[in-house]
């Protein structure tokens, strides 16, 4: 299973940079009291996107480490092969669909 995680990670890091720049330029601007609410909403949405991308980037780093160790494509929890289609969709997936649903079940129960 060969995937170009490096290129993917580079593009995610670029998006993170762009989001940070957008956030910085927004917080520099003094909002008009009338659009203040709107600006706050935009800021929150950018911050959410940034948080999401950063989490994605850190999962990609883990996936790249696994690729270097020859462990990429195997489920962290049960060691089974993760189907190629799943990895193409979610290259950062740490585990197979079955284990993922167990994880989600556990995180809901907790
Ligand atoms: Zn599994």
Task: Report on the architecture of this protein.
This protein is mainly α and 110 residues long. It has 2 domains: 1-72; 75-110, no CATH class. It is 69% helix and 0% strand. Helix 1 (5-28) runs antiparallel to helix 2 (36-68). It is elongated and about 55 Å long. The protein starts with a helix and ends with a helix. The mean pLDDT is 91. The site of zinc ion has 8 residues, from helix 4.
Give me a quick take on this structure.
By secondary structure, the chain is mainly alpha-helical. The chain has helices at 5-28, 36-68, 84-89, 97-109. It has 2 domains: 1-72; 75-110, no CATH class.
Q: Can you write the helix and strand succession as a string? A: HHHH
The figure for the number of domains is: 2
Q: Which class do the helix and strand fractions yield?
A: mainly alpha
- Chemical compounds bound to the protein: zinc ion
Mean residue pLDDT:
91
Tell me the β content. under 5%
Q: Write down how many β-strands occur, each being a DSSP E stretch of 2 or more residues.
A: 0
- Shape descriptor reads elongated
Number of alpha- plus pi-helical segments? 4
Share in helix: 55-70%
Q: What is the first-to-last residue Cα distance?
A: 34 Å
List segments where confidence is low: pLDDT < 50 over at least 5 consecutive residues. none
By oligomeric state, this entry counts as: single chain
How large, in whole angstroms, is the Cα Rg? Answer: 18 Å
Describe the main β-sheet briefly.
Answer: none
Q: What characteristics describe this protein?
A:
elongated; 0% strand; 110 residues; mainly alpha; binds zinc ion
